[in-house]
Design brief:
Length: 206
């Protein structure tokens, strides 16, 4: 399999961590979707990464679909419960974590993107998205409480997803002091960041 992605996308990182936890082999093909010569639309008409190209050439996107698919490819480390309440809880954690990333990326694009002049950037829009990040962190901390894992008694996609979201905030928004406010999330992130799958997929710091 081939995974088209970037080293800085939290959604790509989520897929890469899942692939590592599942011990699946794949080839990472880096793609800059913002480049004028990007070929991403030949695989994903929405021009987004990640995009998984399977052995027969078929394409699977986006990250939520990819991780659900690859979790079925190996019995190693089941990350998404098959049915029931726990499955819904894991997928809700993923939605929450992805939502934090969605809002943070919109803030970054509004602040630094080349699509607007400085005079056109909207502070009200930035504030609205940052409020989603703030509420998302509050909700994640409350839901985790003092538990060792987000759902059940082992690492699942819920933990991976929120760990990736927290890592993205550290990467792009180091000024957000979420660790000081949410000690349980900080401890959880520290634990996850010691896993080889998180270490090997950490975004570049330069």
């Amino acid at each position: 399999m081939k995974l088209i992605g970037s080293l800085t996308s939290p959604y790509v990182r989520k897929v890469r961590i899942v692939m590592a936890e599942k011990k699946l082999d794949y080839r990472l093909e880096l793609e800059d979707v913002w480049a004028a010569d990007s070929k991403i639309t030949t695989s994903n008409p929405l021009a987004k990464v990640p995009c998984l190209i399977m052995e027969d050439g078929g394409a699977v996107f986006d990250s939520r679909v990819i991780v659900e698919y690859v979790d079925t490819l190996s019995p190693v480390g089941k990350l998404i419960p098959g049915t029931g309440r726990e499955r819904a809880e894991v997928k809700t954690w993923e939605a929450l974590a992805d939502g934090i990333c969605d809002a943070a990326i919109l803030v970054r694009l509004e602040k630094t993107g080349a699509f607007r002049k400085d005079s056109e950037r909207c502070q009200a829009w930035i504030d609205r998205q940052m409020a989603k990040v703030t509420e998302g962190l509050r909700a994640a901390s409350a839901a985790l409480d003092e538990r060792a894992w987000c759902v059940g008694n082992t690492c699942t996609l819920a933990d991976i997803s929120i760990g990736v979201a927290l890592g993205y905030l550290d990467f792009r928004f180091p000024e957000i002091a979420w660790k000081a406010e949410y000690a349980n999330l900080a401890a959880h992130a520290e634990k996850l960041n010691k896993r080889p799958s998180f270490i090997d997929t950490a975004p570049p710091q330069s």
